[in-house]
Amino acid sequence: MTIGVCGPVDLNILEWELKGTDFPGTNAFPLTSHFINALVSRGFKVIAYTNSGQIDQPLAYETENLKVYVSQQLPQPGRRFFKFEIEELQAQIRANPADFIVAFWSYEYAAAALRTGIPTVVSLHDVALQILLNHRDLFRVVRWCLNYYVVTKAKHLIANSEYTYSQLNKKEKRKTRTIPNFYPQDFEATIEQPVVKGNYIITTSMGFGRRKNVQQALRAFARLRARFPTLEYQLLGAGMEENGEAHQFARKHKLEDGVQFLGHLPFEEVLQRIAAAKVLLHPSREESFGMVVLEAMVTGTAVVAGKQSGYIPHLLNYGKAGLLCDILSPEDIATHVAKLLTDKSLREDIERNAKAYAKANYSEEVIINKHLEYYSQILGKPLVPDRKPWDKLLVK
What we know:
The chain has helices at 30-41, 83-95, 108-115, 128-134, 138-153, 162-166, 170-173, 214-227, 245-252, 267-276, 291-299, 312-315, 330-342, 344-362, 364-379, 390-393, and strands at 2-6, 45-52, 59-62, 66-72, 100-104, 120-124, 157-159, 176-178, 200-204, 232-236, 259-263, 279-282, 302-306, 323-325. It is α/β, with parallel strands linked by helices. The chain has two domains: 2-185 and 363-393, Glycogen Phosphorylase B (Rossmann fold), CATH 3.40.50.2000; 188-361, 3-Layer(aba) Sandwich (Rossmann fold), CATH 3.40.50. The strands form two sheets. It has an eight-stranded mixed β-sheet with strand order 3-4-2-1-5-6-7-8, with helices on both faces. Helix 3 packs parallel to helix 5 (138-153), helix 8 crosses helix 13 and helix 11 packs across helix 14 (344-362). The chain is globular, with a radius of gyration of 21 Å.
């Protein structure tokens, strides 16, 4: 059984014989790579289809159990409704077909997979309408249109949370299974737990727009800095780099004091910085899931996040696995972060509860089995891996 995975793939965290190769940059989404690793470790052969804006012709990386085909991505794909990217991905899939395809996100990757006619399930990882409402620009309109096409055309959908599922209409819900995101089984082993937590809080965010709400987090930190003069705030991700959007906003509003604008960092370094932080502040207004929150829960860092931010309240077990606040109020954010900074016992209780809740509900073993069971139902037959350890993981 060969399973295809079409989506944004971080080639550098794939566990295969080519690890360490100087790969081109891709639209990396770590969860897709963890998903591929999980399938390969269970004995399945996997073909991954992804793309890159750093190549001028398609590339192929092939090993016995994992093959990756990288197609070209041109600048400003939204202006062309991703037509070139969809056609290139579609060509790669047809030239190197899998028995079944899992497409990540409801945009160009899913559109390409669906057009091949190969049985496909589309995994929804955001809510296109909510993103458009928070970022009212032409690019998000294009993405919403692609999402409408994909969700309408697909016969089988996966929602990554109850929140994502709730945003679908009745017809769409009938063809959707809710299966949450997960963290990989070796995740904890790869993290060096600090002997003492650093004197900083941290936010990692892919963007500085209204939805991510980092503006209010910076205002909240200014209040915290006045109370805790040596406390620092590390900002990671797109738009968080020195002289980037977040830095420009902070400079304009005199909110720079104590803030480190670190921008993009390797995934492993991001995890280590989260693990060493006293608090992860997640100021997003809306999240279909919240992977960085789950990563903090597993690495042992307490979280403060929004009490009405999509799936976040459920992910934090409604306040038992993290503190929930009014994310639009800098005062309320600062109050909840300060609780964790001043009450070590509370912080350690939250950390323990979060780790236990994550293990019970979002571990690789729990979630991948749900995926395989669903694929088996879609195909109407057992999924038989190509090699051991398939005898322990056979889905019937």
